[in-house]
Amino acid sequence: MVTVISRIFNFGFKNFRRNGWLSTATVAIMALALSGFMALMIFGTITNAAAAAIENKIDISAYFTTNTPEDTILSIKQSLEQLPQVADVQYVSRNQALAAFKAAHQNNPTITQALGQLNSNPLEASLNIKAKDPSQYASIAQYLSAPAIAQYLDGPPSYYDNQAVIERLTKIVQVVTTGGFLVTILLALVAGLVVFNTIRIAIYSNREEIGVMRVVGASNAFVRGPYVVEGMICAAIAAAASLVLVAPVLYFISPYLDIFIPGLGIFHYFWTHSPLLFFYVLLFGVVIGAFSSFVAVRRYLKN
Amino acid sequence: MIVFQGVSKRYEHHASALEDVSFEVGPGEFVSLAGRSGAGKSTIIKLLIGEEKPTKGRVFFGQYEVGKLEDQDLPAFRRHIGVVFQDFRLLPAKTAYENVAFALEVAGRPEREIAELVPQVLDMVGLGDKMKNFPSELSGGERQRVAIARAMIHRPEVVIADEPTGNLDPFHTFEIVKLLEKINQLGTTVVLATHDKEVINNLERRVITLDRGRLVRDEAKGKYILV
């Protein structure tokens, strides 16, 4: 058994080396397909980042009347945090609001002067609430509208002012993520088919040899094994090549993407995640390479 | 050892390739199958190595009934036979040494034995100095000698040669036939299919003559005679 397996691997490596041109062509096409696959994974990250960036922009604020005691606000904050829909609640006290306001307008003498003339802090304390999912803002807003809380609020929560915008953004996030997912699946399928056919053609050119091996008394596993090994070698080299192909492209387009989605840093993402990306592309390639070889040889194994 | 019992083979949409053929070949015999192209020589060989199944009748090889063998049993069965073809059928990506070694490797023989046997057999066919050459670097006669070395390396009970000299000039033909006789002298049964009159007449061995799928003559010291 060990002898058989070591011979199968030995033959696989030798065939790969000796079929130089065919191996090179196969690796080249597989590298392109796998680059496509890797680009898809990165595209998935971009859409997720874009969706997250949009989601991050959405929150709702509840402003409390200036005479609401801080304890009450904090207990409402606590009760909000208990809600399953809520991801995060930020409390902005009246003093913090004032400090932020001053900082924001420090270069505007009119406002600074006007503030100085006031005896008390005119700003209200507020809670900024982020939902786990944008579609949940409506129910959070509803919770805040209950009389027990609404009595302390200065007007309804900001959600109702921005309802249309939030709903539209939610829709966009959904479309971007599901659409991106579907496109990824579809194109991954195409990449898989390209790899499959490339290997099939390579094996087609070997069909006579498969017949010879059979006549000499080679078992099916012995005929098939080296081709499967060869398919895996091609995939492994193609995976490494795809990493080298994709890197400069990302390096070039990364700054442009950053203009659309600030803080995306796609090249940085690629660089820090390259071992993981390589692992996925390798896995995808090796599985498809081995499977394609396995299936492609089968039709020449009759008789 | 080899028994054909009333064997017929018909391919779809074609006239029959073999019609009620019966004969026996004993151990250590050297038998030539003679006849024009299309007489049925290759069909007999295909039936013998299990590449085809008979439409009617039975084919035996030792204890095996060849027509009844399942696909997965064929590889092990074929290790009892060595086959030589007109078009050599060597593996182009393997050297002469590796082509011969392959027949032992598929049978799971240990590396040490292979390293010892292959050079011996290649020496015997006169290719001791061309072990590292690829088939594309060898002449037709040399390729056929590699094929013969491959066919005999695992000491099969029978060597079957299907028009082994069909692609060779008279000089190389003579060499190949000499090699087959040598193999036979070592105790291996040889079945040689050929339409080469010279070859058959010089051998002075048993000749089975086929014509349009029928066995028309079976003589112990035959000549190449066609009706």
| SSE series of chain B | EEEHEEHEHHHEHEHEE
Major β-sheet of chain A, in short? 3 strands, antiparallel
Discrete helix count of chain A? 11
Say what oligomer this is. Answer: heterodimer
Question: Pairing-aware structural class of the strands and helices of chain A?
Answer: mainly alpha
> On the 0-100 scale, what is the average pLDDT of chain A?
86
Outline the structure in words.
The complex is a heterodimer of chains A (303) and B (227). With 303 residues, chain A is mainly α. Chain A contains eleven helices and three strands; from the N terminus they run ααβαβααβαααααα. In chain A, strands 1-3-2 form a three-stranded antiparallel β-sheet. In chain A, helix 2 (20-57) packs across helix 11 (266-298), helix 8 (159-204) packs parallel to helix 11 (266-298) and helix 10 (220-260) runs antiparallel to helix 11. Chain A starts with a helix and ends in a 5-residue tail after the last helix. The model of chain A has no long low-confidence stretch (mean pLDDT 86). With 227 residues, chain B is of the alpha/beta class. In chain B, the strands form two sheets. Chain B has a six-stranded mixed β-sheet, with helices on both faces. In chain B, strands 2-1-4-5 form a four-stranded antiparallel β-sheet, with helices on one face. In chain B, helix 3 packs parallel to helix 5, helix 4 (111-124) packs across helix 5 and helix 5 runs parallel beside helix 6 (170-185). The radius of gyration of chain B is 17 Å and the shape is globular. Chain B starts with a strand and ends in an 8-residue tail after the last strand. The model of chain B has no long low-confidence stretch (mean pLDDT 91).
Question: Main traits of this protein?
Answer:
heterodimer; A: 303 residues; mainly alpha; Alpha-Beta Plaits; 2 domains; three-stranded antiparallel sheet; 11 helices; 76% helix; elongated; B: 227 residues; alpha/beta; Rossmann fold; six-stranded mixed sheet; four-stranded antiparallel sheet; 7 helices; 10 strands
